[in-house]
Structure formats: structure tokens, C-alpha cells
Amino acid sequence: MPPKRSGATRTNGTSRPKKKLLLNAFDMFTPSHLAFGQWANPRDRSKDKRRDLTYWTDLARTLEKGSFVGYFLADTYGPYDVLEGSAAPAIRTGAQWPMADPIIPISAMASVTKHLNFAATTSTSYEQPYVVAKRFATLDHLTGGRFGWNIVTSWKPAASKAVGLSYVDHDKRYDNADEYLRILYKLWEGSWADDALKEDARNRIYSDPSRIRTIKHEGKWSVDAPFLVDPSPQRTPVLFQAGTSAAGVKFGSTHAEAIFVAGLSPHVVAPRVKAIREGAAAAGRDPQSVKIFAMITPIIGKDEEDAERKHREALEYASEEGGLSQWCASTGIDVSKFDPDHLLTEQDLPLGQWQRLQQSSAYNLQYSGDDLPPLTVRNLGKLVAIGGTGAMPKGSPSQVADIFEQWIDIADIDGFNIAYVVSPGSFEDVTELLAPELRRRGLLDDPISENAPVLTYRERIYGEGQKGLRTDHPGYKYKYDTYEKTVAQEAAVKKGANGAKKRDSPLDEVDHTGDIKRNGGRKKRRTRK
Q1: Pairing with 261, which of 174, 277, 304, 410 sits 20 to 30 Å away (CA)?
Q2: Rounded mean pLDDT of 197-206?
Q3: Residue 378 is part of which domain span?
Q4: pLDDT band at 512 (very low <50, low <70, confident <90, very high)
């Protein structure tokens, strides 16, 4: 029997939350996203993604009929090459390999839907900000404001090798990303006044040059140009972020409108969510305005027996090798060096290396609750083969809804990025089996009728009328009318910081965990108590 994941029943006894869940379908332009090996399952269409545009348009129609707010696409560069010291296991099993560009299908999907939103992953480490700003403003126009960006900084050394750039350490990536976002705010929010676009055929004036500002920025990146694209429905797309390290939490609490988290148990995720909300409050934002989406891969049957049948079928095709190839790359641990019954702990994390990678994948090693089996190599392989480092509840609609409520109660999340075992079948199960049960419990809105007004992605999250950034979001102050004041304040802060650096010569350096390294000395490894 495979090890169980987070509990099958609600146990904490709290009252049902009143907030409505936000559901995104979670996918990747690859044959095996988080259900490794299922490309061989006859019921799965994932291997058709790069060959057949109708995969995308059919799926878009399916998702719009359900209760999905958005379709969330992950992405990466380069192979997973840590397991066995090679990319061969990932390539052989099709573990997120091959992978095509997730931006390309969005326009086609948008053309056959009115209410489905789209979020795509793009790194701040590999492209110029101006290029990304232009691409995303275009998508926001073509989708009618139904676009969001999942901001990542790219943790994988193989990705840096693939694009021919030097690898940047973890915390520095987030420092760079902060500057990157502020450049984009300048372009999206500060370059064009609301009345700059005239389209005045009588006077032959398309846009008013006096109302379009040239953006000047000097830093890691340089910009000296007005923004090419006129303001889109949202101006700034909805900002997702995936990263729950200390640096990631600080960045997300500042910039993200929605944060994507993952863990095998809600108890793994809960402290991260708490830190995010506290960070948002410290940044002057409403903590509840940052919407938290947890990754989950439910197996839903008409009843418990039907769910068990679907799970048995999935196990026939599941690739533990594929799942482990992804997990090993994200933590830096090559589990092929261990006995299958070796209990994985923080002590197995490569000192000085894993902190540079995907730290959220290592958090499961810090948890030893009774809702998870001991994380031996053997058990880990079974767990990550279906669902990766997220929860995989299975059961009847009522049983799975209980687990969804557990996550809300324990981890204070706002929604889920729902991954699939087979596509589109798993998404159809959410629509036809789970969604009615969630509605019965008051946890999910009714599906949007075809003739309902078209809302932007941000309006679907925050409510009708909130097309642009909230006033407590840092990007808001870059709007055209307040831009000059904001830039002047930034310059003053930067000048003061540079002066302080010249005056100070610190002996102590604080690393991302909060531990102090004296005079460049090596910090002792902490053991789990």
C-alpha cells in the first residue's frame, strides 16, 4: 500500500470558513507535470500538448464550464540532473521533459473563452524587463484583462547553463527581482497617462506625446524609453509568486497579490502562510489581500471505492524515478546514494548548496507529524510520483472536501492550484464531483453564466471594479500622476543607503535563516530537535 498523505477527515473542529475558495487548474507544457509517468496512461492527453492545439482549446472550454477562476502554467529551463548525477532519469521518464513555451497557447485558449483567466510563469533572471513588460501587456490586451504572471527567480543551476548566464545565489535573485518589478511598474503604470491614448480620427492624433513619459532607470538593468504598449485593461497583470524561503516571503509579501505554496501537509505550509501575512502587514498591506493558493492533486471518485480504483490505475503508470528526479534537483540531494529505507532529514541537505535551490521542497523534511509517513527514500518516491511535493487527497467528493477544509482551517489558505493525474479527466472530476459538494458547504461560488459581464483576473480575485492594483500595493505609487514623487523618494533612499555603506564596516553578516556568521566564519549546521 502507498503511504498516506494528509488526513482523510477534518479533525480540528473549527467552524467552516466563510470565504469562498479560488480554484486554478495547474498545468505545464510537458507530458508529465506532477503525475510522473501518466503520459503512458490511455486516459491522459498530456503527450498531445505540443502536437495538437485542440488540446488547449478543448481544455479551456472544459475549465470554463467548471468553477475554475484561472489556468496556471508552470515553466522552467534545463533538465533535472541531480538524481544519479545525470539528466538521464528525467529524460527517460518524461519528467517535465520535453517542455515547450507556456505563453504560446494562451491566446488560442482566450479566443474560445470569456471568463477563464490565465497565469504564466516567467523568470526575472533571464530576460530584459522591457521585453517581458511588452509581452505581458500584449497578453493582457488580447485576453481582455484575463492575464496574470507567476514570478519566479529560477533556482535551477541547469537553467542558467541552458541560457548561458552565470548562476545567481538565492537571496541575490530576490534582490534582483525587486528591482525588476519596480522597473515593470514604471513601464506599466507610469509611462502612459490615462488620457494619453486619443484615437482621434478627426484631428489625426492617435496618442498624445505630452502625456507619455520616457522611463529612465539605471541599476542592474537600464531603461531609457517610453513604454511601447498603451495601457491594458489591468495595466499590471495579476502578480503571482512562488517562493516561501525567508527571502521569497519578503519579496512575496511586498509584491505578490497571490502566492503559490506547496507542502505534503497543511502543517508544513501553515508557518509559511503566517509569515507571508505578517510580512504583508509590515509592508503596509492588508494581510488578507495576499491570496494564498496551495498545490494539491486530488483523486476524486463518485464514492470511496471509485476513488480507490482511479488511484490503483494511476499507480500502474506512476514513475517514482520521474518524481524523484524533480525532487532531487530541487533540494540538491541525490537519493540514489542512499538505501531505500534511509530516513531523509535536514542533515542530508547539501550544506551551502540547498539554500540556493528550491527551499520549499526541503520544508517537508522538517515536519514529522502523524499525517505523513516517515520520509524514507522508498516512501518519498511513492509520494512524489503522484502530486510532487504537494498533497494528494483521494476519496469521495465529501472526503476530499473535508481535506480541502482542513487546509483552509490549518493553513489559512484562500484557494488551490489543482494539478491533475490525467488531463482533462481530473479537471472534469473537480467540476462534476467536487465542485457541487464545495458549493453545498458554502465554499465555492456558482459557475459564471456565459452571458455574465466579463471581469478581469484581478476582479475575479478582489471583486468587480478592482481592475488595477490596490492602493496598498507598492506598484500603485508608480502611477502616472505620482510617478515623479515616487522616483524622487527612491533616489533619496538609495543615496542614503549608499552613504551608510561607506560609513559602516560590519563584522557580522546575517544569512537568510537569521543565523549570524562572524567575520565570514562558517555557520554551524543546526540539527533538528
Answers
A1: 304
A2: 98
A3: 22-482
A4: very low
